[in-house]
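Methods — Computational structure assignment.
A single polypeptide chain was analysed. Its primary sequence is given first, followed by the predicted tertiary structure written as structure tokens.
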Amino acid sequence: MSNDARSTAAAEAGLAENKADALRPTGAPGPAPRSSNRYTVSQVLGKRDRTLVGGDAVCDIRFVYAGREAEGVFWEEPCDAVTATMMDRAQLERLNRWERLDRFQQGFVQQMPGGKVLYVSGAFSAAVYPYGTTGTVEEVTVAD
């Protein structure tokens, strides 16, 4: 066999190995389908008390909007004094919170998945957390 024939045979053998390597599992599984409620329904996942470095007690609220990853916000009160729930426009109107939002903010709230937004209230104030223009959650105060 000539040198050229050997080179061609070796190249073809290497090509066959590369094709076989491409068919072997890599060990890295693909992402699982999101079938959990946590990903299809906007909801509060939970809350827990935390203490900041300075000693202040805060409530760590974990929530998820439909189709998004879970997120968290801190409320500067212990969790016993904090209410965290998902609310739609009608619920905000019943609490007289809807009119505290300007038209721009109301638009963001209405565009939330399922029409619901995280509402958090404590002893002294309340806020909603819609996605803003940057695509991140923004705190909007609705009661002082």
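Note: The first helix runs from residue 3 to 23.
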